[in-house]
């Protein structure tokens, strides 16, 4: 369970430092707008996303079992985070995340990393696609410039609210959003290593400011963001709150464990390496204990940012540490610039993120699965969209394990997730 950082330091050199620094700064430019967008979509303050990228990203790289893993907030958490905040407030989310961190640490200590392979791949595929659908539909409000009160992450409530607010459609917001989607998509296709999302969002937001377009920005919705990190503090605790948050804490821990280990598998294939799964779980645990103390969201390994790190030349965990420090430097020196970011542009970024999460190029492969696995995938996807993640994961995993017993076989642990960094 030794962190990869300690392993790589024995042969570290100035040349590696230069490569890691360039890669870390590149990934930071990708992570900046995405962390803000994920926090907003989760029902949190934009600063929470940056805090997660800084604190979570630093600890995941410093303590993790992968050479090139990049940690921070990810789209996989949006649905469960939104639900926890809606039911228990932001303090409840902080406590639930901390509890998830403790669960992950225990999982690492008992070497539970190998058990992740027992979760059927159709279940992973199903709830990932379901989350992507929820994220994409949830961003239509800002993409279309619609005005209506807060709703839950439940599409049964959100979709009718958007339809009732269709009269508030804003052509300016829609134009900014569509430009952002197309620009980000094109740059990701042509230069996946380039932080094109930040460039496109900056151009779109600058146009909104220059032409005084009637488009909502971060400042108009949230006000100015404070600089730097806040002083760490412990969230309010009670036995009743812990009991109520326990199911959500297990879901957060499960998502963090699965997403980080899938990301580590992708990284291994890209660099020809081998990650340490239990060290990775311990790092995820430490990150999810520390992040809420500073007011951050759940953190995990981010597949797209990890792949971007590799393509940008990252060789060791120092790249991930540089990425976290670069974002910290931004929050200290230039956080006021985020006030100008246009909400439709951030919505466009998350729609592209949802598209890549769903891995559309794999539908031919999915539809060629045996009938029982296809049914399991669609069942998990439907439950994720129509019910909630807790039910989807519990039912999907239970049905999947039952199918394995009936078939008297176990699927191989050698999954083939994509790097999700290209369309």
From TrEMBL:
InterPro entries: SLC26A/SulP_dom, SLC26A/SulP_fam. Pfam families: Sulfate_transp. GO terms for cellular component: membrane. One of its GO terms (biological process) is transmembrane transport. Keywords: Membrane, Transmembrane, Transmembrane helix. The chain crosses the membrane at residues 21-42, 48-65, 92-110, 122-140, 169-187, 194-215, 245-267, 325-355, 375-403. Coiled coil: none annotated. It is a multi-pass membrane protein. It is found in: Membrane. Its main location: membrane. Residues 17-377 form the SLC26A/SulP transporter domain. This is SulP family inorganic anion transporter. It comes from Sphingomonas edaphi.
